[in-house]
Amino acid sequence: MALSTKLKDESSRFISSLLLSALEGCQQGNMELAERLGLSIETMQKLDRLRADQIFNISGNYVRDLSALEVFQIDSSKISRIIELAAEETRQYEMIDEFLRRGACKTMMAELFGMRSTQVASRKKFLNLPTVKGRLPVSTLEEQRQIYDAWLDSLKIADYRERLLYVARATNLSMSKIYREVQEIEEITNKSTQLKKTKICA
Q1: Are residues 108 and 196 in the same domain?
Q2: Which domain holds residue 76?
Q3: Contact at 8 Å (CB) between 52 and 40?
Q4: Higher pLDDT, 50 or 131
Q5: Which Pfam families does the record associate with it (predicted)?
């Protein structure tokens, strides 16, 4: 192993150890090390939600384009950005799993997450989720009302996928059924908006 590569590996392990020590201190109510590293409480909270292997990957990303000596000058803004990206990635995987557990179909996963059908099948198999065959049942009037009310309640949520999760949690209905109904709601709303604009122009 080349000396530079060996130093990078050792530096990465050092950064991992440093982050884990700072995290352990925060968990025990001691923010001193985190503060000395320039890491905010919010950043440490995100770090706390990551797995050990993700923290090690963060360290590897941090030292990738640095010399061994530069590693020991901690760039808090850079490592905070890397932690932010790792936290977003974790949230993405958590969201995908919840969508699948709540009955999201392959078409839905492709449109919302860009997943191929083979990826969806593999993830469902890993989660031990059954494959549902046949057509999606028609929603009852009561189900349509529940979805509509919950969708209106979710207007304050900026992320479209988070809104769908909000409706699913509120109604406990299949995600595929919710997606179909929401698309119809959005289509009707858009047509209504266009009609109003036409009348105003007229």
Answers
A1: yes
A2: 3-80
A3: no
A4: 50
A5: DUF2857 (PF11198)
